[in-house]
Design a protein that fits this description.
Layout: E1 5-11, E2 14-20, H1 23-34, E3 39-45, E4 50-52, H2 54-69
Antiparallel strand pairs: 1-2, 1-3, 3-4
Helix pairs in contact: 1-2
Length: 78
C-alpha cells in the first residue's frame, strides 16, 4: 500500500493542494513555492493526519535555502 501525501497551502485567501507519492516529494513541492509571493499556511497530510505543520515546513525550507546559499548541496533525509 502506498501513501499519498497532500501538501496544503494558501495562495491569498484560497486553499490549494497538491498530491505527492512520498513525503520527500511533498517537501520538495513545498520548497518550490515557499518563497513565492502570497503563499502561506503550509501543511502536509498523509490521509490519517498532519505529518508536518507550517512551522516545520518553514524550518525545513529555510535550512535548504541557507545550505544552497553556502554553496552546498543539501542531503536528503527520509
Amino acid at each position: 500500500m502506498s501513501l499519498i501525501y497532500t501538501l496544503f497551502y494558501r495562495r491569498g485567501s484560497f486553499v490549494q493542494s497538491e498530491m505527492f507519492g512520498s513525503l520527500t516529494s511533498a517537501m520538495d513541492g513545498a520548497y518550490v513555492i515557499f518563497n513565492r509571493e502570497g503563499y502561506s499556511a503550509f501543511s502536509i497530510e498523509d490521509g490519517g493526519g498532519v505529518v508536518m505543520r507550517n512551522s516545520q515546513i518553514q524550518e525545513h525550507c529555510r535550512g535548504i535555502k541557507a545550505t544552497l546559499l553556502c554553496g552546498s548541496v543539501p542531503s536528503r533525509a527520509n
